[in-house]
Amino acid sequence: MLKAVQNLGCSSGFLSQLWKKAHHNTACGGLSSIAISTNPLSNSASTRTRRRHATTTKLDSFISPVFSTRGTRSETRSESNPDATTSPSSSSAGNVSKINFCQWCGGPTKHDIPDGEEKMRAICTVCDKIAYQNPKMVVGCLIEHDNKILLCKRNIEPSYDLWTLPAGYMEIGESAADGAIRETWEEAGAAVEVVSPFAQLDIPLIGQTYVIFLAKMKKPHFSPGPESSECRLFDLDDIPFDSLAFSSIFVSLNLYIDDIRSGKLKFHYGTINKRPGSSPSDMHAFSLDNHLQC
Amino acid sequence: MLKAVQNLGCSSGFLSQLWKKAHHNTACGGLSSIAISTNPLSNSASTRTRRRHATTTKLDSFISPVFSTRGTRSETRSESNPDATTSPSSSSAGNVSKINFCQWCGGPTKHDIPDGEEKMRAICTVCDKIAYQNPKMVVGCLIEHDNKILLCKRNIEPSYDLWTLPAGYMEIGESAADGAIRETWEEAGAAVEVVSPFAQLDIPLIGQTYVIFLAKMKKPHFSPGPESSECRLFDLDDIPFDSLAFSSIFVSLNLYIDDIRSGKLKFHYGTINKRPGSSPSDMHAFSLDNHLQC
């Protein structure tokens, strides 16, 4: 088929025919793969933890409007990452009123909606520059080794002593994949290569987008960095779903296990809608909405 | 098969078997799909424009280390988007030395590497807060309608009068998909729904990551917003590759056409490495590296 396409070239009619073929033969789920929450932020019985004790539950039921597995912990800070002290909290993400001065000229700011825009911004009263705030990307790796997944126990707040995938804020000057590789080295002492994109999970409430890659270790070696107290490979059946640090990690691991179960790894896009004020590790306090998979 | 999996449940041995199956049956390309640049930023004959006149060229040859099609224009500003006056330029993206004052307390900053970090940051000399800079996400839609693609002619700099997909900076408080839908409404007057994630393209030099969704119009209506002088549906064979605004749009459209030609739409991840100082619309001045597809 590929050969035929090459010889036929790029005529309009031919492309039109190919269009229909591509859309019928798409790797991406298209409209049929959309699962939209109808009951956000409520509790559901379709949980990973429960499913481990009731394994006849419909396999994809956890890709449901709501994830909810366990009780809350005592943290009050929002889902965030260790390598940015200014990481947004649920109360401050995008809170323009906290920007009081222009970082370029030092002038005081006013908080107003600029001409032609719709959102409140911090505008310098001296140089007129606008301090735009945008979501931050958190990049990380889901590392597979000998049918196990590498997790790190956090040695820092938030979510101290809870398990996570190695991940952190993407830096300017690097790609998401390079950032994920760097964070894995810093947090798990593991040199990895990225195998495939796996998930993009937006968390609008806290102004974060998680980008998770599947990766593998170049050598079977890992050791905890300063931000981790322990790194360990877990069998998929032994993943500590009761002690995960962040909803994004919970979702990523659940999606991965469901892919493994279904026999096909996919790329996932979705929105994690968190309940305002909830802790990063409260798995009762969010829903996965608009889930699309390729 | 799905039924069998449900009944078998989640025993460790069973998951181990499924693991191998999933990795052999992956929708994502895995290692075999990686195409890494060996000659970044050089010129290549594998171009979309040339291929339109030499259609027996190997179909996937454009997913090569280098894209290069046409001459440069006169713009000197880097690839950027219209809705942020502080959008990073090639010379200022991540340029911490331009942050002179603390936006929270107004104190002067010093530029130093904080303890436990490796990158230079702007640190407030009064309150000690660090002003982290992170890449910005640009979200947009590739809208398919009657086998055509909707493009907008830019009515603003940079890349004035050149064609683009509707796209702009993602805002805090929205998902990437919602941001792409909003930008499409603002720039093309089209109400769309997202069908599938299509591409993530990082541009490290300018601190941007493009996230492009496939989308369709809810009603067959569009009209240019203030930032566009014209919106038009293009046959795939008539896409104005000689007059595109940004390398990210060039790459997205090329990947899309190749997917249509191959009969299978995929999700693409890659890094666009631009030549420092090049214009946003110079298609001789970048390479697509580490291309992965699912």
UniProtKB/TrEMBL annotation, chains A, B:
Pfam families: NUDIX, Zn_ribbon_Nudix. GO terms for molecular function: hydrolase activity. Residues 81-94 have a biased composition (Low complexity). The keyword Hydrolase applies. PROSITE patterns: NUDIX, NUDIX_BOX. Keywords: Hydrolase. The keyword Hydrolase applies. Residues 69-94 are annotated as: Disordered. Residues 134-257 form the Nudix hydrolase domain. This is Nudix hydrolase domain-containing protein.
